[in-house]
Every structure is written in C-alpha cells, then in structure tokens.
Amino acid sequence: MRRYRLTILSVFFLLVTRLGTAAEFNPSFRPAVPSPSGASPLGASPLPSFVELAERVKPSVVNIGTTKAARRTTPHQPRPFGPQDPFDDFFERFFEGPVQRPQRSLGSGFIINKEGFILTNNHVVEGADEIQVQLTDKRKFDAKVVGTDPKTDLAVIQIKAENLPNVSLGDSDSLRVGEWVMAVGNPFGLEHTVTAGIVSAKGRVIGAGPYDDFIQTDASINPGNSGGPLFNLKGEVIGVNSAIVASGQGIGFAIPINMAKELVPQLIKSGKVTRAWFGVGIQEITPDLAKSFGLKESRGALVANVFPNSPADRAGLKPGDVVISFEGKMITESHEFPMMVAHQPVGKTVKIRVLREGKEVDLEVKLGEMEAGEKEAARSSATSAEQLGLAVRDMLPEELREAEASSGVLIIGVEAGGAAEFAGVRRGDILMEVNNTKITKRSDFEAVARKIQPGQVVRLRIQRDSQIIFLAFTFVK
Fold it and tell me: Would residue 8 count as lying in a domain?
C-alpha cells in the first residue's frame, strides 16, 4: 500500500515538473483560465449576447391561437317528438354520439409588413374556424387567412391594426453551418419565449413534402413554436420554424426564408401558389443504381415514371432517364430537381440534359401548370386503375434485368373483390401479355384494355418470381 502511494506521488511530481518545463521553454503556453474580457483562451470571439436582439425583434413576433368549432361524431338525427324531445339525451347517446369539444391550438407567426400581414405555418391555421393573434403589448386581434400553401407548409394571415412593428427578412442562402441563430415563439403557450443555438445543417430532407430543404438548428423548438421566426445575429429572419424530431433533443427544422419570399407575393395576391409542372416521378439514385446506369457517382434525378400527356412525355423523356442538369445547373441530389422546376414560370421552355443508356441527351421541355397537370395525372391514374380492375406502371430497365424479364409492366394495384383478384392476380406480378398482345409499357395495356367488352374472357400472361403463368377471368364492367 505504501509503495502504491509513493507511485502516485511520483507521477504527480513528474507532471508538475513537465508543466513547469513547458511554461518555461514555450512562451506560447498559457494556463486555461478565463480572460477578464470573457474571450475564450484560444483567442476566439466571445459568446454573443442576445439581450438587445431579443428586445428589438420580440414586438414583431405574435402568438396565434386557433379554434375549431364543436362537431358531432355522427350526423344529427331528426327528433320524432320535436325540438323539445324528452328522449333527447337517449338519442344523443345511442344514435348520434357525443358532441366533440372545440379544438384549440397554439402557434406562432411574425409580422412581415405594416399592412398587418403575418407569415406562419399552414398547419397552424389549417381548418381553423377562428384565429386570434396576440402581440407583445397584449393587444388581441381577430385574423383572417389570406393564402395557404400546404406543399411548403406556409400561410399568410392578416390583422387590422395600427402601429405594427415588422421584421426584416434576410438571405437564407448566405447562412453558414455553425452560425448563431435565435428562435422566438409560443412553445406550450409560454408567450414570446426566446431560445438560441446554431445552424446545425442545411438542405435537410425530412419527408415533410415535395420541396423539403430545411435548415436544421439546435435552438430549442417545441410545440407552439411552429410558424415563428428564426433570426440571425443581425435581427433578420432567415427561417420559419416548422418541425421537430419528437424523440430527439436539439433537433429542429425551419423553412428557409428565401423560399417563403418567393411565395408570399402569390399568397397575398391570389391566396395560393401556382407552380410549374414537369410531369415525372423521380427517385434517389443509390450506388447500385448509379453503377447500373453507368454513372461514376450517385448524382442526378432518376426518372421512375413519366405521366401521359405531360410536358415531359411530350418532350420525349423515358423511365430510366437520369436528369443530370437543369438549365445548365448540375443536379447533385434528386430532391433538388423539384425545387428547380418550382422556381420556373409556367409556360417556360427549359433545357435539360439526361443520361440515357450511357449517352448524354439534350432535351427541351415546355413547363405546364401544376394544378392542371396533377388533375390530369390523377384522372389518367384513375382510368388505368379502373381498366380490368388493374393498375399498372412502366418498369425501369434495371427492374426488368433484376426480374430477368424481357418486357412487361408492373401490377401495382388489384381491385378488391374484382374478377382479377379472384383469378389470382397479385400486386407485384409482371404483366407480359393480354389476350396474346405483348405488353411493353402502360400505354400498351391501356389500349388493349379499352377494347375488351363486358362478358369477354381476359387471359393474362404473367411472370411471378421466376415462373411464367397464365390467368384468366371474365371481365365484368
């Protein structure tokens, strides 16, 4: 035991001697003690103070309370004995169900101009029957919805008031990872709460919608912060706080303010956003897919589906094409492509470059209008789903290779209880022939299906796993 104590003392004195030697022979050596100015010992800038910033911007941040009116769980039934029915409670309990209580929720927003327009999240005000806005000076105002955009989860509401302070909008593109930011909002009903942190990442895709491009921050964001602003140290809004990871801490997401700045004028003018439509379904390129397409790296947007009669269809795009550039700008990640299209005006002809069977092909596409295009796509999908009780889609070249199939379309839907289902057709089957007609793409299937009359026998040649089988049924309209 004594020898053990001596060993510890020897190590201690050795360390003291080494530290003393380092201080004596290395003039740059300094003990890690705080400097009087508060600067870090490594000469870095002192931590920022958010006091003046918070005092300056808080008046332009508002708390938003919404109410959805009470509704019955089942429709109201007429009373056999009139409005003063003595059995009223009986009918309500056993035939109509209870009346739901009014639903109330809280969120945040910020005033963007002197006219009382407030930017917030769509999910904060969606479906609300009443919207009330409270300022820092405790004034309360009823608000109306001016415009909404569910695809980006943005909304503009308006109040009628005077002497309204408004925020300054910054440039989210210039934001850098590691930069200090401050959030202000109404978490859990705690009015005008201020939290601070840094930008953790940019360009996050979290599956919230087709235009995901979130700023990630560790500034504390909680339920009720939705729609509130994320400020930089200049006091400029650089993001709209929108989402959190429920199971995590210090992981919040904000919509870049540059995206909002593009949409707000449309929301105020027309109440909605009109976007350009390309007419394709895209997917991410994995390393294996990149190898199969002859790409040196996993970049670009893989065209998984081309909607019939869409701008892409008319321009000659095909499933399996890889869009590698759009208007001269290279596409690194697949999620960049929808954003590039959305930023273009309807009717513009854009230039793209695709990789097709190892060769680069230049194409021009005249963009359509998204709302009309989506309706047409939905109509086409519904039509194909109704034909013979089957829904199919074109297959990618690598899907055919993996299935060791020479041609065919993939069955993605079978009508429940229909003749095709009773005949044994399954989702995931590859449809190769219909009544001796070879099927190589969805349009082939639709053309054949339209000619089949009720009562006619339909024979399908199908590949399932590694087997080729025939199935038949009588078509019933």
Answer: no
Per-residue pLDDT tens digits for 75-101: 555 555 555 555 555 445 545 555 567
| Whole-angstrom distance, CA of residue 168 vs CA of residue 155 | 18
Q: What is the pLDDT of residue 304?
A: 82
**Which one of 270, 291, 319 terminates a domain?**
270
Q: What is the pLDDT of residue 70?
A: 67
Active site residue 192: no
* Residues 180, 144 within the same domain: no
**Residue appearing with tokens 């230049």:** 362
- The number of distinct structural domains making up the chain is 4
For the question of whether the overall pTM of this predicted structure is more than 0.90, the answer is: no
Matching residue, tokens 């010992």: 41
Q: What is the CATH number of the domain that holds 397?
A: 2.30.42.10
The one catalytic residue among 105, 123, 213, 384: 123
Residue ending a domain, among 366, 396, 425, is 366
Let me know if 384 is a catalytic residue.
no
Q: Of 200, 220, 226, 242, which is the active-site residue?
A: 226
Is 235 in contact with 56 (CB distance < 8 Å)?
yes
Burial code (b: 16+ CB inside 10 Å, e: under 16) for 420-437 equals bbebebeeebbbbbbeee
Across-strand partners of 138?
none
Range of the domain at 95: 54-158
Among this protein's residues, is 313 annotated catalytic? no
